[in-house]
Design brief:
The chain has about 160 residues and is α+β, with helices and mostly antiparallel strands. The chain is about 20% helix and about 35% strand. It contains 4 helices and 7 strands. Strands 4-3-2-1-7-6-5 form a 7-stranded antiparallel β-sheet. It starts with 7 loop residues before the first strand and ends with a helix.
Length: about 160
């Protein structure tokens, strides 16, 4: 049996839309693993959790703001991870996709909007479409579209669901 393809990981920036004229840049990590071939993962810094207090002095930071002294603090909290279908991300680059907690749609100027919904609220993120396309292309090199089930370990997936 051949070894599984190496995981795909890509760091990119997204713009978190905070209001009509307010947004914040944040680092996002995109991950894909052949062992979980139907899913992609988006990881966000913990300080951007939907249940975080926006007025908390230890809340979101602006690394480009020389007056934000929290920018140099050690932020060791674990990242927030959202997991959803790779096919949803692919579809959302060209048309509105998703009906549940994750919705993706093309936007103006070669951008893609990702809307994440949870009981704590809604987060709206804007990505450069080219960054998401590059990530999908790399994931499809690891596991071509339509070949996902060849990499899926059904017994392990069921065990993880029941754990």
């Amino acid at each position: 049996m051949s070894a599984a393809p190496a995981p795909v990981e890509q760091h990119t920036q997204a713009r978190l839309i905070l209001g009509t004229h307010r947004s914040a840049l944040l680092r996002v990590t995109l991950r894909y693993r052949a062992e979980d071939p139907l899913a992609v993962r988006m990881l966000f810094p913990a300080e951007y959790a939907l249940d975080a207090d926006p007025y908390d002095p230890n809340g979101p930071i602006d690394p480009h703001d020389p007056f934000d002294t929290a920018a140099s603090d050690d932020r060791s909290a674990p990242d927030i991870e959202w997991v959803f279908a790779r096919q949803l991300l692919s579809a959302g680059l060209d048309r509105t996709a998703g009906e549940g907690d994750v919705r993706i749609r093309p936007s103006f100027g070669m951008r893609t909007m990702v809307e994440l919904r949870s009981p704590e609220g809604v987060a709206l993120l804007q990505f450069a479409r080219s960054d998401l396309r590059r990530f999908l292309w790399r994931s499809q090199l690891a596991v071509p579209e339509g070949q996902e089930l060849r990499h899926l370990d059904c017994d392990r997936a069921l065990a993880e669901l029941l754990a």
